[in-house]
From TrEMBL:
Swiss-Prot/TrEMBL keywords: Glycosidase, Hydrolase, Membrane, Transmembrane, Transmembrane helix
Pfam families attached to this UniProt entry: CHB_HEX, CHB_HEX_C, Glyco_hydro_20, Glyco_hydro_20b
Domain Chitobiase/beta-hexosaminidases N-terminal intervals: 106-265
Organism: Paralvinella palmiformis
Reaction catalysed by this enzyme: Hydrolysis of terminal non-reducing N-acetyl-D-hexosamine residues in N-acetyl-beta-D-hexosaminides
Protein name (record): beta-N-acetylhexosaminidase
Key word Acetylation present: no
Length: 1130
């Protein structure tokens, strides 16, 4: 009877669901078909997976995964267990549908071409071509192409109706979310025959003047298939995008004054820096005072040592290159072994020599930035290391068998995780209520997919063990595939269990070059480098400097003594960096000189965006090293945005289980929607996160380099990843624990506000009217404080605060009731103000200071919130939106005069996500300026902000005297409290940056120019006479550019950094070719056979008539920059 009553109750509940709102569907399914808290193996399946398209037929949105389109005729089974592997040969459940999708992916050639940026006001026209290169007809068959688009497609219809009909109604284009669109054949669709080309004209927002505005990895699928990436779009070079061969394509409008540089134009511009044949600046950033006292001091004598005190062990180790002092007992041996294993996995010079090995590694490990595969093998690898195999195996010794190895399905000795995984799958199948699910559960694929996945992990461990042997002939291949990542896992084990220090020489590439001399505490009579903390006397005429980071270097070449004194350990560290800069590693000599130095600003930062695209731990470590080389001291770590949440928060697992992954599972609420070219799978930079261990590893390394890490979780806007994740948490818990389910809820379930955020997302703003929002905020900040506490106490939390849509929250019933109770907060802008006040209160309680982007701290009248209202002594603000012609360039003065601590992050000079030339082939966004090259960064005058007005976005020159007149372009309010400008920050946003190589080419060497301005106050800054100031600036730039080309870029290359290789300038005179580069000393190559072979250009070379390709090459011959054609005429 009891069982019958329970059955009737369930039936009644089910009936209630289907006669009530579709919003309840997912809740009911979770009750009848429970999944307990996402077991680890199930989550692994999701990380690798891409589910077939759901039954959304009209409008798809990530607004709320618990809500389905009211017009949808079929319900969506959100617990369908059809999990599809990243492997393109993964299981499918409809062979006919899958073969059709595979055909389209392989044979449909996509081509996208800008036609005209002048077509309509602030709109551009593009042609999308679909060519059937196969032998079969492409019929309707319910397929859809998912494409990524930076600007709104058909905005007139998409923004209001969410869809648009194109190609005479043959295709329906739906805006899914962010940059993701879906294009589906309609009833009017006409089959595409073999060899036929279908051309579709699209009208789009704004303009497109760069190839990298397009995204790769478009994909196709049906509701009954696994998605497949369309091969013609699977290309980081974006070859499917047409050329920009006319003004209507490379200009944003008829008023745009920019044209791509011709070789002779570039030659003329490069002439600003003549080649001096040497690095004129011995040190970058330029020291305050540097005086040569003699010739050279030779450090090759074995009597040399580094003398230090106990509080400078880290600095001494970095300078000398010695390993950390031994620890007693087993921990000592194990730490040393871990370091040795890591060294074997470090990158090496030279290309991979065995293509087959590269292919095998790539098939096993995935892409370079795919840490998930590495992470899955972590426990197994640590087990291998911990048990008995501390020493790398001898060359002739066969690696021991892996005890958990399985190769046959009938093997009875399956590890527990395999069993758990299969039990989970079988549970899903037993609770099946879907015919489609039943079909899949009965298939062979279901029986094999967990085994296949596990065998791939076994193969991974096998490969790692082979690499640990250390004698693989193609060991160099490790550098580009997984060396750092695997090394970091081993090092993480050492840190966690034995306290091995991240500053140990050889573990990471050190910020110094290492002198390879011993360390000691007792001071000999001669041949020593003494590092100490002490008093440093700064010149009274040097202006305001940061004495806490001052240092001096004294060299006594007669007595062979070098003394480095810093006012703090950081000052000593910067002295070590200067010593490394003047050290000749080949000759083992340094210049005899005296240095007195200190920075102009206390805040010298880099903002790294890992949310739009994720970058692995080793890349963050490498950036920290280069920051330290050039005396930068703040990593502003942008860890969340609409497109991803990148840090594990214990207790809120959905933030990374769902919010850190972008794939086609988004239709079922199991991930974020694909975005920014990430494709349907999670095996790329669109997905990933830092574990607690990863993050603490980064903190340790930052501390060893005297870099402060300021974490940012952007809120209340740009929160799509967190909102989707917390809604999934709510759905998981609400039936069993409503109090816990609502504890961190961020969305009003009845909010019907309709808005589109700047990047195309329709759900971005957390609800500041809900108390649970502040539970979430406190949870995040308190977790960060815990993670930082014993390494680098959390001093500052960056709340973000930028770009909150004005229409967000308008139709939230909870906010409407809140406004009645508190009438002052009667708009989204004022609700943002309330949110900031509450967050500041929480941070104050936790003894953490707050930092934000400027627009997060502006009231409805565009004035800063009053500091007295915020009730805290200090808030720091990043000033970024200084577009002169928009009248916002005076905000720096307004905030500084209002007692905020100002960090200059001006988009016109310090946004490193912008192109480095006004050329369609250069990577980057261009909303603030058409291009920002290294010289532009170098020219920035942080203490004279209005001197930075040079040109408008479209290239028209700005004259300061005209712009600052009453009624002019800018209200040039004077900075009355310059002491409140505390620093500068270079910003590297990653919307268009998907690989570490792309990241590095955008960051370097612009970062070096920013470091120069943040540390050193140039003599030409602030000179009133424009002509005199410009002349002196160009003279200084010439010295700086020569130092980059003749020394600094080579140092970066030694750290395996893929810095930007600028195209060369060239002129032809009587058949004689003359070339130059932006950074004198770089080598230019030529090709006369369309790039088949390359040779260095020699002085005054003559060529026959025709086209010659030119490109700048790296010093190690491994890379070339963008090639340019030069026509030789007679």
């Amino acid at each position: 009877m009891k069982r019958h009553t329970v059955s009737m109750l369930k039936f009644a509940l089910l009936c209630m669901v289907f006669v009530s709102t579709p919003f309840m569907l997912s809740w009911t399914l979770s009750f009848f078909f429970p999944i307990q808290d996402y077991p680890v193996d199930y989550m692994h399946m999701k990380e690798e997976a891409a589910l077939p398209d759901s039954d959304f037929s009209e409008f798809e949105s990530t607004r709320n995964f618990a809500q389905f389109d009211e017009n949808s005729k079929q319900n969506v089974d959100i617990y369908d267990p059809r999990i599809y592997m990243v492997d393109k040969n993964g299981p499918v459940y409809n062979d006919v549908s899958q073969s059709f999708v595979d055909y389209i992916a392989e044979h449909l050639e996509i081509r996208y071409e800008v036609l005209n940026n002048f077509a309509k006001y602030y709109k551009y026209a593009a042609r999308l071509s679909l060519r059937n290169n196969g032998s079969e007809v492409i019929k309707a068959n319910n397929w859809s192409i998912y494409l990524f688009h930076l600007k709104f497609i058909e905005p007139t219809h998409i923004k209001s109706e969410h869809y648009a009909l194109v190609d005479d109604g043959q295709f329906n284009i739906t805006h899914i979310d962010g940059s993701l669109y879906k294009m589906t054949p309609t009833a009017a669709y006409v089959d595409i025959l073999p060899g036929e080309i279908r051309e579709i004209i699209l009208n789009n927002d704004h303009s497109m003047v760069a190839r990298t505005d397009a995204f790769p990895n478009w994909y196709v699928c049906t509701k009954d298939s696994s998605p497949r990436i369309i091969a013609s779009t699977q290309d980081e070079d974006l070859k499917f995008v047409g050329d920009f061969g006319s003004m209507a394509k490379w200009k944003r409008s008829a008023a745009d004054l920019f044209d791509p540089y011709t070789p002779d134009k570039r030659f003329f511009l490069n002439a600003d820096a003549h080649d001096h044949g040497q690095a004129n600046k011995l040190v970058i950033p330029t020291p305050l005072n540097l005086t040569k006292t003699g010739d050279m001091l030779n450090l090759s004598d074995k009597r040399w040592s580094v003398v230090f005190s106990d509080d400078l062990v880290m600095e001494a180790n970095l300078l000398s290159g010695e390993q950390k002092q031994k620890r007693p007992g087993d921990a000592d041996t194990k730490c040393q072994t871990i370091v040795r294993i890591m060294d074997q996995l470090q990158p090496h010079h030279g290309p991979c020599t065995t293509p087959e090995h590269v292919d095998a590694l790539f098939a096993t490990f995935g892409s370079r930035t795919n840490q998930k595969i590495v992470m899955r093998a972590e426990l197994k690898f640590e087990k291998y290391v911990n048990e008995e195999h501390w020493q790398p195996a001898p060359v002739d010794q066969k690696p021991p068998d892996i005890p958990w190895n399985i190769h046959e399905e009938q093997n009875d000795e399956k590890p527990s995780e395999i069993k758990d995984n299969m039990v989970q799958t079988q549970t899903l199948c037993r609770t099946s209520g879907s015919s489609r699910r039943d079909k899949w559960c009965q298939s062979t694929a279901m029986k094999n997919f967990t085994l296949e996945r596990y065998n791939r992990e076994v193969n991974f461990v096998m490969k790692v063990k082979e690499l640990i042997k250390g004698q693989e002939q193609s060991h160099d291949c490790v550098s580009s595939l997984m060396g750092y990542s695997m090394g970091l896992i081993v090092h993480g084990q050492a840190v966690q269990e034995f306290g091995c220090d991240t500053a140990v020489g050889g573990v990471f590439h050190p910020a110094t070059g290492q002198l390879d001399i011993p360390i000691r505490k007792d001071q000999p009579l001669t041949h020593f480098i003494h590092i100490r903390v002490g008093f440093v006397s700064l010149p009274a005429t040097s202006g305001h400097l940061i004495s806490d980071e001052a240092y001096s270097i004294e060299t006594n070449c007669d007595k062979n003594i070098v003394r480095i004194t810093g006012t703090s350990a950081a000052g000593v560290f910067y002295g070590v960096q200067t010593l490394d800069s003047i050290y000749n590693h080949n000759k083992r000599t340094i210049h005899c000189l005296d240095v007195v130095d200190a920075p102009r600003f206390s805040y010298r930062g880099i903002m790294l965006d890992v949310a739009r695209n994720f970058f692995p731990v080793y890349e963050v470590i490498r950036i920290l090293d280069t920051m330290a080389m050039y005396k930068l001291n703040v990593l502003h770590f942008h860890l969340s945005d609409d497109q991803g949440w990148r840090l594990e928060i214990p207790g809120l697992e959905e933030l990374t289980r769902i919010g850190a992954h972008r794939n086609h599972n988004f239709t079922l609420g199991l991930s974020l929607a694909p975005s920014l070219g990430s494709g349907p799978f999670s095996n790329n930079s669109g997905s990933g996160f830092y574990t607690v261990q990863d993050y603490r590893m980064i903190l340790r390394h930052a501390k060893s380099r005297h870099v402060q890490v300021i974490p940012e979780f952007d809120m209340p806007g740009h929160m799509n990843s967190a909102l989707v994740s917390m809604e999934a948490r709510y759905r998981r818990l609400y039936m069993t624990n409503m109090e816990e389910a609502t504890k961190y809820q961020l969305i009003d379930p009845n909010d019907k506000s309709s808005y589109i955020a700047p990047e195309g997302h329709r759900l971005t703003t957390l609800n500041p009217c809900m108390e649970s929002t502040y539970n979430f905020v406190e949870k995040i900040i308190s977790t960060l404080k815990t993670l930082h506490q014993d390494i680098m106490p959390l001093d500052v939390y960056h709340l973000g605060g930028d770009e909150v849509p004005v229409l967000a929250l308008n139709d939230s019933p909870i906010c409407q009731r809140f406004m009645v109770q508190y009438p002052y907060y009667n708009s989204t802008t004022r609700l943002r103000e309330y949110f900031v006040h509450r967050l500041v209160e929480i941070a104050k309680k936790l003894q953490v200071k707050v930092q934000a982007w400027e627009d997060g701290l502006l009231d409805s009248m565009k004035f800063p919130f009053r500091m007295t209202d915020l009730k805290v002594p200090q808030i720091s603000v990043n000033l970024w939106n200084n577009i002169w012609e928009n009248g916002r360039g005076h905000r720096t003065a307004i905030f500084a005069n209002s007692n905020y601590k100002v960090i200059l992050s001006h988009a016109t000079h310090l946004y490193f996500d912008h192109p480095q030339e006004p050329d369609p082939e250069e990577r980057g966004l261009y909303w603030a300026r058409r291009f920002i090259n290294t010289q532009k960064v170098f020219s920035f005058q942080p203490e004279h902000i209005y001197n930075n007005m040079d040109e408008e976005i479209l290239g028209r020159q700005i004259l300061k005297n005209d712009a600052c007149t009453p009624g002019g372009m800018v209200d040039c309010i004077p900075v009355e409290k310059p002491e409140n400008i505390i620093g500068m920050e270079g910003n590297i946003w990653s919307e268009l940056i998907r690989t570490t190589e792309q990241l590095e080419s955008m960051l370097y060497p612009r970062m070096l120019a920013m470091a120069e301005r943040a540390w050193h106050r140039a003599s030409w800054e602030g000179i009133v006479d424009d002509h005199v100031r410009e002349r002196l600036r160009l003279e200084d730039w010439e010295l700086f550019a020569n130092s980059l080309g003749h020394r600094e870029l080579s140092r970066l290359e030694g750290m395996k950094i893929n810095y930007y290789l600028p195209p060369p300038g060239a002129v032809v005179m009587g058949g004689t070719l003359k070339v130059n580069t932006m950074f004198p000393g770089m080598i230019v190559q030529y090709s006369i056979n369309n790039g088949t072979t390359w040779s260095d250009v020699l002085p005054d070379m003559k060529f026959d008539a025709g086209v010659v390709l030119l490109a700048t090459r790296s010093y190690n011959l491994l890379r070339r920059g963008r090639s340019i054609p030069v026509e030789i005429h007679y």
